[in-house]
Amino acid sequence: MNRFEKQFNTAGPSIPGDHYLLDPLRRIDLGEVLALIEAKRYFVLHAPRQTGKTTALLALMEHLNAQGCYRALYANIETAQAARGVVARGIAAACNAIALSAAIYLGDKSLDTWLQREGPHTPAESLLTRLLAYWSAADPQRPAVLLLDEVDALVGDTLISLLRQIRAGYAQRPQAFPQTVVLCGVRDVRDYRIHSGDGEIITGGSAFNIKAKSLRLGNFSFEETRALWQQHTEATGQRFEEAIWAELWEDTRGQPWLVNALGHECTWKDKELRHHREQPVTLERYKAARERLIQSRATHLDQLTDKLREARVHRVIAAILAADDTDAQALQAQVPLDDLQYVEDLGLIQARPQWRIANRIYREIIPRELTYTTQTRITHEQAWYVRAQDRRLDMDKLLAAFQQFFRENAEAWIERFQYKEAGPQLLLQAFLQRIVNGGGRISREYGLGRRRTDLLLEWPLDDAQGFVGPVQRVVLELKILHKSLEATLQEGLQQTADYAQQCGAEEAHLIIFDRRPDVSWDEKIFHRTESIGARTVGVWGM
Description:
By secondary structure, the protein is α/β, with parallel strands linked by helices.
């Protein structure tokens, strides 16, 4: 292994000499960006965290300065967040960040000198406007372009003041104010929910109504995802099994941090592969790396689950997790379109062609995180359900145990869930996760309009071979009873059989949760087998 070889980047902006990297200027549609700058437009560039925004902005700054037509400056103003709503501190922090960036990237210390001279005598409500006016007027031949990062990290009156000071100087561009200001963050400016000091709520759109356009930095395409990983092969000679590409795409759907994090897990965290580049990365090593990443609760994944506590996110994700018989269009009528767009902008969902969680790794992480505490409180042990003679999971025994557990605990345990709408499905997933942890794995699929939650449980039957040896595959279909039991059975059996066929599973179970309060547990609880074609399906009522 070459100690100086590039790596997959999982923290901070990508550096060409250190990291595998796709051309960041191609990702932001450079032609459109240049046209907006030439037209003296102010605009927004937003994308979920760790998707390459900072890398793109730094590359744009270098490109514009190399052309010689503009003076472009990138500045991260996140430090102003600490001031919360204290305008004097917040605006001073933002101005200092801009002056420091000018000194670092442009070798221009005049902004810092101006702040030291004029700052103490300038009201905070006009400090930013006057600083930018001074900088813009310093070179009339090369208009200023300001790229402000982490703008939506600011809150309250500090954010209001910053947006309004930029708006105040807009009419003086480009002679006495930047020709273009780009606001960059996770959210579009319309989603800035600003609470002023006196309790007034102001949306970002009203505080910054000079925005010409919002650009969203998207995920990698399938081809770009593969191309990034192939850079590792070109640099080291280590190749990836062909079967990995389809899995990588479904796991990440091109989400840049996930693509890089999985690459890092496979090629660096796996020490054997790191020290033996002649060994290929196999599909099973890739799957092991994916599981390590999911269990790591890395910062990016932790931030993702933190978003689940927001009310706007809750409304959308709860509907997807419940995945019941409600028509998707009817639910779209109930959930505000702004909320749907907001959650999509955060990178949590894909809204087309149907609402679904954005990628397979997020589909794994979200229910695990929502039920983490529950898993730790379930006392059932893995060994109780593993048959000694063939090491197979005894699914009838396991599901019968959950059936009794659900009868005894459902009401009290589901009440503790933040996402009560999907409580039955989450409780079963917590129970299964508790049993398979450290041995098997569960894959999840759910989405509005599909009328069920699909689970695929995989259990290796040989400790030494793991998942490269024989594997028990079990499909579980989860449905909430809304229609009659007969109608739910008819629909659910066909769905279960189809999913089992798709997954190559030899066992299949349909689980029907009856949430009607006027029906006794004795009526809800049942177990029988049904045949559909050549397939036998276990049916469990709860």
